[in-house]
Amino acid sequence: MHIKHKTLLSWSSGNDSAWTLHVLGHQPDIDVIGLFCTINQTFDRVAMHAVKIELVKL
């Protein structure tokens, strides 16, 4: 029986997060079930890279 580990990825919207998501997507024992992202409520942007929340949702 092959067990897949349900995983959340901390998402900063940067290159490292995108690459990590790509790599994890190719791991047979990992199931990325969601991305965790910190949003600056005042500006509706990702706290780390100031990406607009609308782009993150896409």
What does this structure look like?
- The structure is a single chain.
- With 58 residues, this protein is of the alpha+beta class.
- The N and C termini lie far apart (35 Å).
- It is 28% helix and 29% strand.
- The mean pLDDT is 91.
- It has one domain (5-57).
What is the strand content?
A: 25-35%
Quote the distance from N terminus to C terminus.
35 Å
Q: What summary fits the major beta sheet? A: 2 strands, parallel
* Separate helix tally: 2
Backbone shape = elongated
Mean residue pLDDT: 91
Low-pLDDT regions: none
List the defining traits of the structure above:
58 residues; alpha+beta; two-stranded antiparallel sheet; elongated
In short:
With 58 residues, this protein is α+β, with helices and mostly antiparallel strands. Helix content is 28%, strand content 29%.
